[in-house]
């Protein structure tokens, strides 16, 4: 039995969006938009990550357990960032 | 029975169970990799918070052209890898080998560009602790410690990925008519795409902060 394979069209289309997003990130970095620049850039990077995970890594084609494991690392990373941010932003380190 | 021993390891009931276990194992490993690189991104965030302007000034000294070219190379290598995995699933082994070879070529191109970039960085005296460029702010050294560590570890992952993909090419070339599990190629692909995802974040944080000012 052959496992389900994605279409060439969907893979190439994903690649085109990834490249377009990449140059959008570069364009956004050159804009004088101050505080909003990095959040905008990182949002686009998160979209790129989601595209790679969904279409190239096919994370959503596996069962629920696989999806759970796929997001687990990012979940723990989020906890790490939140706890460290809570510490560094509330204590007078300087 | 001979067929079973060549395609399914004895601890598994059937091929779908083996496939699920192998893929789950790989995703678990990738979760540990997320935390491994996550620690470095966390250190970056803390120092960026403390030395905001120094990081912006130091980032301007990285070469955005090399970084951009390498990003496109890595994204394209993810496409060729995904096409290779697709061909393996369809049992088109010749196409799989072709796409994996293309991925290896792109990976080597990435490393070559990185090599040129490192050479330029050394020439521009951007190695902390070794006659560091006096035009940069003092805390720019912290930025470049992170730059060398993060890009160096990423390059190490690229090299490991190239080794894994080359092993897959070897297995496919010497299979002598025996089937090769698509999930072995799939797992190599998962690792390669993860390496691409790490670069997606390294690129803006190392090359683009403070570019407009």
Explain the overall architecture.
The complex is a heterodimer of chains A (94) and B (213). The radius of gyration of chain A is 18 Å and the shape is flat. Helix content of chain A is 74%, strand content 0%. Chain A contains three helices and no strands. The mean pLDDT of chain A is 88. The longest helix of chain A is centred in the C-terminal third of the chain and has 27 residues. Chain A is mainly alpha-helical. Chain B is elongated. Chain B is mostly helical and 213 residues long. The N terminus of chain B is likely disordered. In chain B, α6 packs antiparallel against α7. Chain B has a single domain, classed as Up-down Bundle (Four Helix Bundle (Hemerythrin (Met), subunit A)). Chains A and B meet through α1, α2 and α3 of A and α2, α4 and α7 of B.
Concise structural overview:
Chain A has about 90 residues and is mostly helical. Helices cover about 75% and strands about 0% of the residues of chain A. Chain B is mostly helical and about 210 residues long.
